[in-house]
Structures are given as structure tokens and as C-alpha cells.
Amino acid sequence: MYDAQGMLLDAPEEPLTYLHGGYGGLLEALERALEGMLPGADVRLQLEPEQAFGDYDADLVRLAPVERYGDGLQVGMEVEEDGSFYRVTDIAGGQAVLDANHLLAGMALRFVMKVLSVRHATAEEVRQGVLLE
């Protein structure tokens, strides 16, 4: 996975496996691009933010007093507020900036994939909605 400028964002060390058919294992646009592909297929795809992790929403950013979290609060940590999870993006003046946007929100993403294998899901995998092997 690359950003729109070609900077590598993620390269899994192990092949990704998922249950095809809308079970939530992949972004919908990626799953559509892989539909019907056979082993050996190379797939390249660019997704706009709305097809990937959504547009960045400034309404999902809030300030909270640092003392609410005790000692040790640091930029990059995740905290829960009112049932939502926020990433601490800055700390200044006794306030923590909390952001509930996905890390990749607002970004166009490029995917370069190779299909290594395809198999039919077992009845139990379909019933549970996850790969078991």
C-alpha cells in the first residue's frame, strides 16, 4: 500500500488472507478489484479517500485536559472518550489533542497486489464469516 505520491505505507510480511464476499476482511473497493482473479494475477488500484478510509473529518478532533488521563500520556497513544477511541496527536498547554479519524483518513491510496492462491471457503467458514485455516 502506497500513498498517492508513491511512498510505501505498508507491506505485509506474510500474505494477506481473507474471506471474499463482503465479510469485512478487506475494503469493499479492494474486494471488487479482486473479484474473479486467479492465482498469478497482478492487481493495481488507486482508491480515493471515500473508497478507502473516508475523508478527514475535523469534527472528530477534540481537546481534553491532560490531567484526565494521569501521568504518562504521550503523543501516539490511544484513549477512550465517551465510547469512542481517539489517538493523541499533540499535547500543549495542559491540553491533549484527540483525533478519532482513521490514520489514513483523507488519503488517496495505491495498492499493488498479486494473487497467490484462491480456494473455496468451507461451509463453516461461510457460516462464521471468517477463515478458519
Please give a handful of descriptors for the protein shown.
4-stranded antiparallel sheet, elongated, 2 helices, 7 strands, 2 domains, Chitinase A, domain 3, 133 residues, 3-stranded antiparallel sheet, mainly beta, Thrombin, subunit H
Question: Which structural class fits the helix and strand makeup?
Answer: mainly beta
Second rung of CATH, namely the architecture of the largest domain: Roll
Number of helices: 2
Gap from first CA to last CA? 25 Å
Structure commentary:
- The chain has 133 residues and is mainly β.
- It has helices spanning 28-34, 123-128; strands at 2-3, 42-47, 61-65, 78-81, 84-92, 95-99, 109-114.
- The protein has 2 domains: 1-54 and 105-133, Chitinase A, domain 3 (Roll), CATH 3.10.50; 58-100, Thrombin, subunit H (Beta Barrel), CATH 2.40.10.
- The longest helix is centred in the first third of the chain and has 7 residues, at 28-34.
- The radius of gyration is 19 Å and the shape is elongated.
- 10% of the residues lie in helices and 28% in strands.
- The chain starts with a strand and ends in a 5-residue tail after the last helix.
- The protein contains 2 helices and 7 strands.
- The strands form 2 sheets. The protein has a 4-stranded antiparallel beta sheet, with no helix packed on it.
